[in-house]
Specification:
Blueprint (H helix, E strand, L loop, with lengths): L8 E4 L17 E6 L8 H9 L26 E8 L5 E8 L8 H5 L6 E4 L4 E3 L9 H5 L6 E2 L6 E2 L5 H4 L6 H5 L5 E5 H17 L6 E3 L9 E5 L17 H32 L10
Length: 288
């Protein structure tokens, strides 16, 4: 649970202003690197995620795809997406991508959440969910440009990948990375993973993948999950080209809500000033 973690907190939902004690201790920002060009679609990461996080079985159905589910679920936080396209030479092309919480540096879910402490961002970049504080309103889903948080009908709470924060806090890599057999998934500091990703992109470009890129969108100030895309078109992998926190969420978080706090304070201050200047309002005298 988020409130029990050992990491220093950078930001919490439903809180205006700086976090008490924030910045006193800084952890290195952690990051997961996903190289879709070496993913074989074995789904070992899916199974490892389900097992480690003790998630319930979600019924699957056959819809003509090798994809386990059509989308993420409150009981399924890690999904390998299969996208079939036609290559330039007319042949079939399978594009696979690991779908999960991206752990944005500027998390829209946290900005949109009205419940104090329901969503927490640690100094190491992990965005965690505190189910005891979650009110199940679903606002976090409206703030996420990647459509990640999902509502659980069983618990009445929202749920998503926590980047295995319970493993990371004791020096272990996330369960999905432990299970990956091809080295498609790697884990380390953000700086290390970006350097490694850029080196792989350069290698791919030398092998003929001229549009290869490292997906680390600046619209959310970077992500804690960076992805090597062999074909350089995020939309081919069901990723937004330029994700941003929705303007409505920014308006609420940065303007409307602070103004509401100021208005409430001004109202209380006005009552206090009126009372000290004019005293209590007494009932009219009875002259009968």
């Amino acid at each position: 649970m988020a409130t029990e973690r050992l990491f220093q907190i950078r930001a919490i939902s439903g809180h205006v202003g700086t976090v008490p004690g924030g910045g006193m201790q800084h952890e290195l920002e952690v990051c997961k690197l996903v190289d879709v060009t070496t993913c074989i679609g074995c789904k070992a990461c899916e199974a490892a995620c389900q097992e480690w996080n003790d998630l319930k079985t979600v019924a699957t159905h056959q819809d003509g795809s090798y994809q386990t589910l059509p989308q993420l679920d409150a009981e399924f936080w890690n999904l390998i997406r299969f996208n079939e396209r036609t290559s330039d030479d007319g042949g079939p092309m399978w594009l696979m991508r690991k779908d999960q919480c991206m752990h944005c540096a500027e998390p829209g879910c946290l900005a949109a959440c009205p419940a104090p402490g329901a969503i927490v961002q640690y100094d190491n970049g992990i965005v965690d969910v505190n189910p005891t504080a979650c009110i199940g309103c679903g606002y976090c889903a409206t703030g996420c440009p990647f459509d990640v948080p999902k509502f659980s009908k069983q618990t009445g709470k929202m749920a998503k990948c926590t980047l295995c924060v319970d493993r990371v806090e004791v020096g272990l890599e996330p369960a999905c990375i432990k299970a990956c057999p091809t080295g498609c998934l790697q884990f380390g500091t953000k700086e290390e993973m970006v350097q490694l990703g850029n080196a792989r992109v350069k290698q791919l470009q030398g092998l003929g993948f001229k549009e290869a890129m490292l997906y680390d969108p600046s619209g959310v100030k970077g992500t804690g999950v960076v992805t090597i895309l062999g074909h350089g078109h995020p939309e081919w992998y069901n990723l937004p080209v330029d994700p941003h926190v929705p303007w409505g969420v920014r308006l609420w978080k940065q303007i409307v809500r602070p103004l509401g706090v100021i208005a409430a304070f001004a109202t209380v201050l006005g009552f206090f000033v009126h009372y000290t200047r004019f005293g209590p309002k007494l009932p009219p005298e009875d002259r009968s």
